[in-house]
Amino acid sequence: MILATLLFSIMHASIKHISSDIHPFEVAFFRNLFGLVVIAPWFIKYGIKPLITNRIKLHFLRSVFNVIAMLTFFYALSVSPLAEVASLSFTAPLFATLLAIIFLGEKIGIRRSAAIIIGFIGAAIIVNPDYKTINMGHMCVLISASIWSVSLIFIKILGKTESSVTITSYMVLFMIPLSAIAASFYWIMPSLNDLLVLAIIGITGTYAQMLLAQALKEEDTVVIMPFDFLKLVWAVLIGYLIFSEVPQVNTWIGSIIIFSSTLYVAYRERKIPPKVDKNITQPVDQ
Asked: Which pLDDT score, from 0 to 100, does residue 209 have?
């Protein structure tokens, strides 16, 4: 999980760096395209077995929500400080819990309800209490987190009958053409140096997702989630060293509030089963 947070942060910094030359939507396309390189060994080993499914429509719908979340998240990285994006992305489990209540009939008590409310108060603190500095990047991260939560609901449903290999394979195969449609409106031919950065984005992002999935498989969410806060630490360090970004006090306060509330929600979901499973409480990362 520690390595996953570092790889995610490297990907985020690379996206921010290259977005000054290439539109984030085109970056998202190459992130998916180069991600195919990582999962290619699955097809070499198993052939078309990972693609055998009776739920192709559900896989497609999941990918549609996933690609929208990715596009808005990548755009946010291009216009907002890394630390603010990392902080607001912690709201994804809060959105996921709300959606699980609405669509999956999950029941929660007053403690988790309070934690969710407090978490969103933390998000309001990050975008600034007087809302004078709220920008499109802030809105895009929150939109991405909420849409990603819908995708997580689909993952939970698919996980009842599909293997993780099948779910991931269809995600990549559908998201390549979907992101290509969005990228076509802003397409420019990348240079060789650009392709190197884009390859780093695709490979680090895909490996980070695989490490995250493995971490959640090895340990409960409540054990893994505290390490997710390292994304903010890496974002602050990289943002300062490479982009000369210094997070404001409200970013730290808000992020601590959000993260503490999501950690408590995960703890309560583990303590009082049956509740939202591991897929639903994992953080947003594209």
From this structure: 81
